[in-house]
Known about the structure:
Radius of gyration: 22 Å
Number of strands: 22
Strand content: 15-25%
Low-confidence stretches: none
Structural class: alpha/beta
CATH superfamily of the largest domain: Ribonuclease Z/Hydroxyacylglutathione hydrolase-like
Mean pLDDT: 94
Distance between the termini: 13 Å
Strand order of the largest sheet: 6-5-4-3-2-1-22
CATH topology of the largest domain: Metallo-beta-lactamase, Chain A
CATH architecture of the largest domain: 4-Layer Sandwich
Amino acid sequence: MYIQFHGAAEQVTGSCYLIEAGKTRILLDCGMVQGSRLEELLNREDFPFDPASIDAVILSHSHIDHSGRLPFLVKSGFSGKIYTQKASRDLCRIMLKDAGYLNEREAEWENKKRQRKGLDLLTPYFTVKDAEYAMLQFKGTNYSEIKKISPTISFRLNDAGHILGSSIVEVWIEEQGVKKKIVFSGDIGYPNRPIMHDPTIIKDADLVLLESTYGDRFHRSPEDTHQELTDIICQANSDKGNIIIPAFAVGRTQRLLYDFSKYYDEWDLDRWKISLDSPMAISATEVYSKYTDLYDDDAAEMWKNKSIKSLLPNFSFSKTANQSMQLNKIPSGQIIIAGSGMCTGGRIKHHLKHNIWRKHCHIMITGFQARGTLGRQLVEGAGHIRLWGETLKVNAKVHTLGGLSAHADQTDLVNWYKNFSQNPPVVLVHGEPVAMQALQTKLKNETSSEVLIAKKSKKIDLLNLSNINFI
Length: 471
């Protein structure tokens, strides 16, 4: 009976954990590594376990760093069920297909260079068809239902308050008459966040896997974040430039549309043209409209039986490439929301190319930016960036809005953990080393719990949690 860490160990992306009890083997998540080009090459590598030996996957939520290698897992021999919340399943249908398309395009682009050099050609490690085939193995579940995978393993999903369908996972395992319970936080939200419910409180566990994305940071208060957004829009209006917003297709985009709708009059948004330039985000927004029962009361009431265009009269979807290109001909008065959220691909790169050198342009960074990404360069104050071989000067004003994050900060993570009785041991996952170390120190000081930082490929013996260590 053990758990082994195969991803998001001393890094934020690539979430993947193997649990074995008796003859049953399951994965918690199976996500892509995101970051630099070199880091993303890791996604092409074979799994460090036999995919055919895995009986099931429990997926915490649809974000690609948690779900993105599932088609490759299926292609490599996995034939079991993929359990996730129903809204998460519907979002994965969009996101995994998009990831397959990007893999195909990347391989096509890379092979043009390889042909000229006489090198062997690459094949996409999974395609659109692979993603569609993988979806046949998804099993959508509801929150609060206990599901049995095998005689030795059962689980329950609980609302994590991160994005639509995100889950805190409780896993019960049994071997040789010994029962243990693991609680995996997934990506966890924070209290009183717009649209989503507060994260579910869990009170008992033998081991907790706790995300630590913002383990060393503190979000601004909702009031301060609101004022920051107000100031940016006011300044941009005065500067008569554009506002360019890289945004994750799932979660962040819908939060922005919610805020723009709620504060439409206060922010004088009737002066702007607002465009969502991301086919995937458009599809994800349609899924969000299907599951209003998962919203908090305020959001449910605001969006009930209302279309986005009735709340934002000057809003438009930009679906085609031609519509996207037309946006770049307008030098001012536009708010453009586009992916990818870390500026690693997608239409946002084209909008940066046409706007980042403009002094009157404003760029709003609204989410976590992994190491090695273009978004991280902007957050860290890069004076120049390179796009398609061209060097561009960063004259635009870059704003980093931590208060829009969908992740709990250090205080929220500690407070959520404190609801557990008897201080169960903790393994920190899904964080960069500095953030993990800061959260480890904070938890040890405030709870006297045993707190470890996940190490890639290392195991923990679940029968010996009183003396927890890696093996």
